[in-house]
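DM from R.C. (forwarded with permission)

"hey, sorry to bug you on a friday — could you get me a structure for this? deadline for the figure draft is monday and I only need the backbone to look sensible"
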Amino acid sequence: MRPEPAASRPRRQDIQGLRALGALLVAAFHIWEQGVSGGVDVFFVISGYFLATSFLQRAATGMKVDPPAQWGMFLRRTVPEVLLILSGVLLLGLLITSPVLWSDLLRGVIFSALYLENYWLIWTSQDYLARTASLSMVQHFWAVALIGQVYFLWPVIGKLAEWVALWRRRPVVPVMTTILACLVLLSFGWSIVWTAIHPTAAYFDLSTRFWEFGTGALLGLSPSLAGRLSGRLAILLSWLGLALVLTCGLAIGASAQFPGYAALWPVTAAALILLAGNPDQPGNAGRLLALPPLAGLGAFAFGIYLWHWPLYVVLLDARQGAMPTLLLGVALVAVSILLAWLSAGFASRVSAGARWFGRPWLLPVASVAGLFAVAAMATMLERSLSWSRAGAEEVVARLGHHDLEPGALTARGDKPEAQKMGCLLAETGRTVERCVFGSDEPTRTVFLVGGSHSLQWLPAFRVIAEAERWRIVLMTKVRCPFANPWDTAFFEQEGLNESCVAWNVDVLAEILAARPDIVFTIATRKIARPHTDELGEHVPSAYLVNFAVLNDAGIPVVAIRDTPWLTEDVPACVYSVWNGHPDDCGIARDKVLDDAHIAIQAGQLPAQVAWVDMTDTVCDARHCGVVRDGKLIYRDSDHLTASYARSLAPLLADRITASLTRLQQATGWP
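My reply, with the result:
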């Protein structure tokens, strides 16, 4: 990418070639869904290297760190192109992406314009390896945001080094080197810890990534290191670095958690090339990287990175999530290069125009104003969607989208009211939250427990509770099914947060103490089928143990077969401009349900467990659909909309009654 100050543009064409290679690797690994390429890490190291060489040049001439000037230089070099691409992506997104995704797109643009996209992705728990039709067109701006944050901090660190050097009466470069070395060690140590605890957040966090910039900066502050390398050693290390760059993604890109220890691979690769690369040395890998086609492409690496992702998201949406073919992928890269060339030319003309006015401060000020203008415009559009939802839905319907309940702009938020009230405990939460609904003088007290798939039935249960005078006690937690907490293998295999174990201990204790009339929970769970992309289902043994524990205490259980987990983001698919009919967003029944296997397991449930199967409200004998009776069934890929769940209340009540009647006849339970 292109964030280095103008004063320190690389004369070494091998570094330009390395940047181009990094951008192409990122694009290729994104397009063909191979995981992390390591290209972004290479960008970070190079950025730190150029920051340090610029600092070294200033120190050599006795110039002091000038934060406003350095910030202005960064803004002049990057923001015109960023503004052009953000504006283009915003327009493109509103025209051809599903209206379901408009709010996410607008929020992404807001945080991208403010150089905070990385923390927005942390806040929304975005998985960096996720590949769905609901991908944000601007989520790749997390790397741009992170570079911007480092460029903002760099003059502050430089000023600190100057003050310490003045105080200690030492040369500023060694002081800066010491400060950076300490920050690199702290950041790397924290990266290892935080990546192990929360890899999704660690991937985007400045604190876990700073050491990558710092490594490049330490090399930039130590130019004499390269001079100490012998000819053969330099050649060997340069080729080793290039080999590591090319093999990083293939070796560990989809299997290792980044950054942590895994990021040592691409960081070491880039460091070796910066240290040992030499375009003028025969046999050096730097000669290959400095070849004009590759080195010339390095000037557009920033634009290639920024343009390829929204084009990929559009292509993925148009192909309904199918990975692009080789030909389509190559065409996408070619178009990205063309757009990068055009946007770089635009940025150059803007800079030239600002210089013509003779006001060096004009372009940085205009850049900041432009960023805030884009953020403000996106904010107003997003607020308009929220404030006038009915009017916006009518406009969307007139654009040719299906007239369903809920509509395109409300489908994602069509959740149980209890979830909006905070009754669904966060994934890392440990304290059991109890929410109570229904009659104060109940005929029955029922507990609804488990994860979000238990909660999705609450709208139907509340209708039943009103008719039957039930009292519902809700205890639910994100990604935490009601499972026996001592079955540690289950929680490890499912990748559940460790707090889920403690939560299940407390929930089971509360149920045994309260002795409700019935416990409602989910009976089955998805499972990946070996050697396929399909999902199956089973009744986990951890569920069965909990059912048996409750039965031993005389507490009956109503176990509901889980709704099918689809592979599509259903609202995004149904309301997509590329989709002809909602049925195209469904899936064959046998690809998500294991009817024969589940029938056997249902017959082996403990005695006082009533089995309820509602899958026929989603699937017929062959196909699982996404729309029924004018209602959208799913609000994402696996959760029912509250509207549809509520409409199933009469049928659910009948099946619960029938199941309990069979249970009473079989066991004598009153």
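R.C.: lifesaver. The chain has 28 helices and 13 strands.
me: no worries. The first strand starts at residue 424 and ends at 425.
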